[in-house]
Amino acid sequence: MKHIPRKRFGQHFLCDDGIIDAIVRAIAPVAGEPMVEIGPGLAALTQPLVERLGRLTVVELDRDLAARLRQHGQLQVIESDVLKADFAQIAQALGAPKIRVVGNLPYNISTPILFHLADYADKVKDMTFMLQKEVVMRMVAEPGTEEYGRLSVMLQYRYNMGRLFDVPPGAFRPAPKVMSSIVRMV
Predict the structure, then answer these.
(1) Spatial distance between the Cα atoms of 79 and 13, rounded to a whole number of angstroms
(2) Could you write out the three-class secondary structure of 1-64?
(3) Could you tell me the pTM of the whole model?
(4) d(CA 133, CA 138)
(5) Contact between 105 and 81 (Cβ < 8 Å)
């Protein structure tokens, strides 16, 4: 059954196999390590990640997508708004002092998600996200530049940041109206 992207959830589904492979290579998952994917959607990243990890925990708000994901035996599905998810509790449930967090974050609420996750910095080994390029540029901005501001300061205080590569709108269905970028936060 075809899933119709919901605008209110900011859904744009990654569909470019080359980009998916590049993101998975950048994440470099290792079998058995505890990882959480935010917003797995139609499982474009989820499937190659779980193939390498063996198991994967996913946080999905859309109940229809969560139901689909539950069909996959190697996924632990947390049906929740990521802004309400307790990542310390998730790390504890996974039996890990630190977890890895990845995802294609909804662009319409990416900044609140980043600030929410910053509260759990001591429970996170690293994070690799796809976000709107403009947001990533603010995240990694150097002091004294036009992009440098509250987001830069709040995140760079807790993480070493790095912009990895850009993702064009055509890599998604439906295509967003903006360029995307992959960012790593350690």
Answers:
(1) 18
(2) CCCCCCHHHCCCEECCHHHHHHHHHHHCCCCCCCEEEECCCCCCCHHHHHHHHCCEEEEECCHH
(3) 0.92
(4) 9
(5) no
- Please tell me whether residue 113 adopts helix, strand or coil conformation: helix
- β-pair partners for 166: 181
Q: Which of 128, 169, 184 minimizes the C-alpha distance to 12?
A: 169
- The rounded distance, in Å, linking the Cα atoms of 148 and 16 is 31
Reference 144, options 155, 132, 133, 152; nearest CA is 152
The tens-digit pLDDT sequence of the chain (186 residues) is: 554 544 444 446 688 999 999 999 999 999 999 999 999 988 899 999 999 999 999 999 988 889 999 998 899 999 999 999 999 999 999 999 999 999 998 888 999 999 999 999 999 999 999 999 999 999 999 999 999 999 999 999 999 999 999 999 999 877 878 899 999 999
Two structure tokens written together for 91 = 């790390």
Query: Do the beta carbons of residue 121 and residue 147 sit within 8 Å?
Result: no
